[in-house]
């Protein structure tokens, strides 16, 4: 139960941070004409292809007592970053970044550019156009970004193990709990937790795809989905 | 937001070279003056009609030129002036109409009135919806409207801000003749009071003849002919 609550707390924190970071980043990736933009796209997408242990290893080095982030944190807050909940949050934000940014950017991109032109000639600046036109028409992408961030963080294992270790109450998340139980031959317990996670993931993804189709049919917004949308 | 309508005129000296942005070669090079009333911009596809409107609206930036409306300079390369589209006070009805699909008809029309008080906004919206005979449609979303009704909402949305000029980019494509005539009449009635220059782009000959006080014939980015009062042309 403690592990589940910790995982939910971590997922909620990471989802909120990813939404705050992901929206402006996705907006910039969608509308910027900077020729070097592909480099930023590559960095954002890296966690999709990197083994979690690779990302976790470099984050552990960076957050360690000799790493730049760890030293900065030590100087600023008087304690280290590795094997702490805050360290887990930072690592999870980086690891789940593409799961938030890509649906958001795809939704922003699918908004008809003529609507943005119309907003502009009607006197709206970029912020108002974003808040009144782009964001409401990107609701499926926003929902996808939040839910996928949450679900992906909830189920992560490799990065958590590398950066957070296995400290009950502060870094032992639900996936580490399953691993722990298997290690101690408690298959029944592991099955109970794993089944809960499986059902939760199924329900979350069903909600995302169901809402996408609902919004696609009933609002003017476009569907973001890795599956065919017809 | 209100402007001195009787003095309104639009001048456009535009040199726009699209070759610098894409592989297709196209240069728009025009020097035009527009008085109050409807000027039909007529010409074949690819003549530069929509490009001309986009430059006037500020959606495209010419390489050289000067654009003024009501004596205000909106764009001038020599002086380094390039007023952003949202500050030009020019109405624009796109070919696709570009109505906001998530807003009602009234919401679309109200969108450009953000700087006014709520009372003024409502008053303006009521007036324009009545003028274009769409007051009964105010709560409907664009997808619940017919083509002609959408057209009226788009016109109302562009005109409710009391723009200094109105740009219409083939807005009546796909409507039948009777509906076109009805909407055109409402537009002309509105402009009898407001007297702003209206640039009406079309490649439909009948529309050009029916609507225009004047006609400018564009071809390959150049003005090849002008007529003060349109007469049928073979």
Give the helix/strand layout.
The complex is a heterodimer of chains A (230) and B (234).
Chain A: H1 2-31, H2 37-49, H3 52-63, H4 68-77, H5 85-110, H6 113-121, H7 126-134, H8 139-155, H9 158-164, H10 174-183, H11 187-218
Helix pairs in contact in A: 1-5, 1-8, 1-10, 2-5, 3-9, 5-8, 5-9, 6-7, 8-11, 10-11
Chain B: E1 10-17, E2 27-34, E3 37-42, H1 49-57, E4 64-69, E5 72-76, E6 81-82, E7 90-93, H2 105-110, H3 118-131, H4 147-159, E8 165-169, H5 177-194, E9 197-202, H6 205-211, E10 214-219, E11 222-227
Parallel strand pairs in B: 3-9, 3-10, 7-8, 8-9
Antiparallel strand pairs in B: 1-2, 1-4, 4-5, 5-6, 10-11
Helix pairs in contact in B: 3-4, 4-5
The poorly predicted ranges of chain B are 1-8
Largest sheet of chain A: none
Q: Please tell me what the overall shape of chain A is.
A: globular
Strand order of the largest sheet of chain B: 7-8-9-3-10-11
Question: What structural class do you assign from the helix and strand content of chain A?
Answer: mainly alpha
By CATH, the topology of chain A is MetI-like fold
Strand content of chain B: 25-35%
Q: What's the CATH first level of chain A? A: Mainly Alpha
Separate helix tally of chain A: 11
Give the domain tally of chain A. Answer: 1
Shape of chain B: globular
Helix-residue proportion of chain A: over 70%
Looking at the overall shape, the CATH architecture of chain A is: Orthogonal Bundle
Which stretches of chain A are low in confidence, meaning pLDDT under 50 for 5 or more residues running? none
Radius of gyration of chain B, whole Å: 17 Å
Strand content of chain A: under 5%
Instruction: Determine the oligomeric state from the structure.
Output: heterodimer
Number of continuous helical runs of chain B: 6
How many individual β-strands of chain A? 0
| Largest beta-sheet characterization of chain B | 6 strands, mixed
What is the average per-residue confidence, as pLDDT of chain B, rounded to a whole number? 87
């Amino acid at each position: 139960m403690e592990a589940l609550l910790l995982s939910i707390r971590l997922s909620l924190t990471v989802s909120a941070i990813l939404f705050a970071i992901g929206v402006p980043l996705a907006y910039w990736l969608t509308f910027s004409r900077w020729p070097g933009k592909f480099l930023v796209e590559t960095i954002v997408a890296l966690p999709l292809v990197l083994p979690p242990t690779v990302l976790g290893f470099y984050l552990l080095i960076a957050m360690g007592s000799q790493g730049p982030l760890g030293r900065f944190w030590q100087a600023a807050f008087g304690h280290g970053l590795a094997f702490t909940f805050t360290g887990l949050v930072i690592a999870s934000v980086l690891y789940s970044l593409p799961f938030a940014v890509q649906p958001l950017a795809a939704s922003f991109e699918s908004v008809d550019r003529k609507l943005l032109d119309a907003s502009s000639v009607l006197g709206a600046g970029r912020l108002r156009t974003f808040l009144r036109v782009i964001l409401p028409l990107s609701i499926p992408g926003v929902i996808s970004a939040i839910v996928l961030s949450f679900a992906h963080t909830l189920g992560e294992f490799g990065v958590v193990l590398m950066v957070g270790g296995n400290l009950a109450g502060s870094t032992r998340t639900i996936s580490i709990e399953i691993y722990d139980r298997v290690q101690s031959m408690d298959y029944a317990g592991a099955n109970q937790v794993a089944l809960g996670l499986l059902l939760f993931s199924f329900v979350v993804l069903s909600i995302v795809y169901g809402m996408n189709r609902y919004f696609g049919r009933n609002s003017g917004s476009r569907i973001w989905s890795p599956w065919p949308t017809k | 937001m209100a402007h001195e309508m009787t003095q309104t005129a639009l001048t456009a000296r535009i040199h726009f070279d699209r070759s610098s942005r894409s592989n297709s070669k196209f240069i728009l090079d025009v020097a035009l003056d527009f008085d109050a009333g409807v000027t039909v911009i007529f010409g074949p596809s690819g003549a530069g009609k929509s490009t001309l409107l986009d430059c006037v609206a500020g959606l495209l930036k010419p390489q050289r030129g000067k654009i003024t409306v009501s004596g205000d300079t909106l764009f001038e390369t020599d002086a380094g002036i390039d007023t952003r589209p949202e500050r030009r006070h020019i109405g624009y009805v796109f070919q696709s109409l570009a109505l906001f699909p998530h807003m009602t008809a009234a919401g679309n029309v109200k969108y450009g009135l953000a700087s006014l008080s709520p009372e003024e906004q409502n008053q303006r919206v009521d007036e324009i919806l009545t003028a274009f005979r769409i007051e009964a449609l105010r709560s409907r979303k664009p997808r619940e409207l017919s083509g002609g009704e959408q057209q009226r909402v788009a016109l109302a949305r562009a005109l409710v801000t009391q723009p200094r000029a109105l740009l219409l980019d083939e807005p009546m494509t796909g409507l039948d003749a009777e509906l076109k005539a009805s909407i055109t009449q409402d537009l002309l009635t509105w402009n009898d009071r407001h007297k702003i220059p209206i640039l009406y782009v079309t490649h439909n000959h009948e529309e050009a003849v029916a609507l225009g006080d004047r006609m400018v014939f564009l071809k390959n980015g150049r003005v090849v002919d002008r007529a003060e009062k349109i007469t049928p042309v073979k």
